[in-house]
């Protein structure tokens, strides 16, 4: 399950899901817990390429 599917299931914007998973104070604690619980229940894992982009390190599989 990807972040968009998780957002659709929880009826929340993708940006809120992302902020919640990154423990942002911009998201209420109750919402962060709800997002984390759903992510855990559905086996959500961040995509490796998205994580690399966020960290500023691109890797090639070539």
Automatic annotation (TrEMBL):
Highest taxon of the lineage: Bacteria
CDD domains, alphabetized: HTH_LacI
MF term (GO), any: DNA binding
InterPro entries for this protein: HTH_LacI, Lambda_DNA-bd_dom_sf
Region of interest (Disordered), residue spans: 40-62
Gene Ontology process terms (BP): regulation of DNA-templated transcription
HTH lacI-type domain mapped to chain residues: 1-55
Protein's name according to its UniProt entry: HTH lacI-type domain-containing protein
Species of provenance: Paraburkholderia fynbosensis
């Amino acid at each position: 399950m990807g972040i968009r599917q998780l957002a659709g299931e929880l009826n929340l914007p993708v940006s809120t899901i992302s902020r919640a998973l990154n423990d942002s104070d911009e998201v209420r604690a109750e919402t962060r817990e709800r997002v984390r619980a759903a992510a855990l229940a559905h086996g959500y894992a961040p995509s490796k390429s998205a994580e690399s982009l966020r960290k500023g390190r691109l890797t090639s599989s070539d």
